[in-house]
Amino acid sequence: MSLNELLKKLAAHMEKAEKENIFFEDAKKFDPPLTVQSVRIQVAGFNKLPCKYVAVRPCGDNPDNKTYLGILLGECSMMAIGMYNIKKQEIFVKDRLNPMIFVPDLMKVVLGVESWWEELQKPEDLKQITDADIQNVWYVKALREMQEKDEKDIP
């Protein structure tokens, strides 16, 4: 399946979800009263995983773009999302989990979304995560292609 086909399929799924649900966020308003038959809450909080070594290159405050040895601790709750299913008259709340990585050299925890990281078999496998590595990630390539296509379409 090509990337375009995958994105079209994803867009159709998202469009269907938007019609069947009201997402609780500031951008969407709905008129009360809301009839609620049930409330489902699915919150993990923290999902402990077997500790693994990772190479991690934090984004943001990392002027040298240095890669560190990290320890993947598990997945932590990053945020909660909520929606109201119109047909079922049900409120559903779920948290979004994200990898939590301890970086001993920095004495801090870095989340997966704020870094580039990859699993290692052993600490000795640590190597720098380069800009070329990042540019070679499939979704970075896809975004770059989409941006190039948009720039060509602009008169």
Give a nutshell description of this structure:
The protein has helices spanning 3-20, 131-135, 138-153; strands at 21-23, 38-42, 46-58, 68-85, 90-103, 108-111, 115-119.
Describe this structure in words.
This protein is 25% helix and 40% strand. It has one domain (3-128). The chain is of the alpha+beta class. Strands 1, 2, 3, 4, 5, 6 and 7 form a seven-stranded mixed β-sheet that branches. It has three helices and seven strands, in the order αβββββββαα.
**Average pLDDT number:** 81
Summarize the main sheet.
7 strands, mixed
Q: What's the number of extended β-strand segments?
A: 7
User: What sort of overall outline do the alpha carbons produce when their principal axes are compared?
Assistant: flat
Identify low-pLDDT runs.
Answer: none
Number of helices: 3
Fraction of residues in helix: 25-40%
- Give the ordered list of helices and strands: HEEEEEEEHH
Q: Roughly how many Å is the radius of gyration?
A: 20 Å
**Structure classification:** alpha+beta
Please indicate the count of domains. Answer: 1
CA(first)-CA(last) distance: 31 Å
Could you tell me the strand content as a percent range? 35-45%
SSE diagram, text form:
Layout: H1 3-20, E1 21-23, E2 38-42, E3 46-58, E4 68-85, E5 90-103, E6 108-111, E7 115-119, H2 131-135, H3 138-153
Parallel strand pairs: 2-5
Antiparallel strand pairs: 1-4, 3-4, 3-7, 4-5, 5-6
